[in-house]
Amino acid sequence: KMDDDDDIPQLSSHTLAALQEFYLEQQQREGMKTSQGFNQYSIGSIEEDWQLSQFWYSDETASCLAKEAVLAAGKGGRIACVSAPSVYQKLKEQDGEDFSVCILEYDRRFSVYGEDFIFYDYNHPLDLPENLLPHSFDIVIADPPYLSEECLQKTAETVKYLTKGKILLCTGAVMEEQAAKHLGVKMCKFIPKHSRNLANEFRCYVNYASGLD
């Protein structure tokens, strides 16, 4: 009887050495991250992809929006972040707090966050998993990826489907009228900042009495 092992391709010692070196470097990199107190939820742990029109909030802005979301959601509240991963990351840093959060995002790199992650394409606003029940979130935070009425309108369908009522929208100042029309939200005094300066003035909009004024 032939040896079963004969079928298994053997890696050359050269390839093996290269692989081991690669894994070692990778481990060292990961090790560095942990030793520097790397936090998988820190903003910037996943880099911006400009082709997807991604711009992360500054740390301060993300903290401020996360704090607002927790207050608005209330004890045991549920928060949905639609295309707003830096707010999601900030919320997750406050682990052990009494709320839950999920992230709806087109960029599958965020699937590292496990069950919290829901793949989301604003072109199919209601193409959502069955376990995302209508009106099951105390607050929905949305930051549509593009400054276009079409993108806002479609994202608005998702937001209205998910929220019990409260909406926190972040988008350009130029979208004020469309935001009122599609989501019934008004501009707040608070001005969100990004980790890199954007050409367009950004604003926050809400449809409830928030702490952002």
Automatic annotation (TrEMBL):
Which Gene Ontology cellular component annotation is one that this UniProt entry carries? cytoplasm
Which PROSITE patterns does this entry report, sorted A to Z? N6_MTASE (PS00092)
The catalytic activity, as recorded, is: L-lysyl-[protein] + 3 S-adenosyl-L-methionine = N(6),N(6),N(6)-trimethyl-L-lysyl-[protein] + 3 S-adenosyl-L-homocysteine + 3 H(+)
The protein's location, in the record's own words, is:
Cytoplasm
Molecular function terms from GO: nucleic acid binding; protein-lysine N-methyltransferase activity
Keyword check for Lipid metabolism, yes or no. no
Species: Peucedramus taeniatus
Q: Answer whether the UniProt record assigns the keyword Cytoplasm to this protein.
A: yes
The protein, known as: EFMT1 methyltransferase
Tell me the Gene Ontology biological-process terms attached to this UniProt entry: methylation
Q: Where is it chiefly localized? A: cytoplasm
Keywords attached to this Swiss-Prot or TrEMBL record, sorted alphabetically, are:
Cytoplasm, Methyltransferase, Transferase
HAMAP family per record:
Methyltr_EFM5
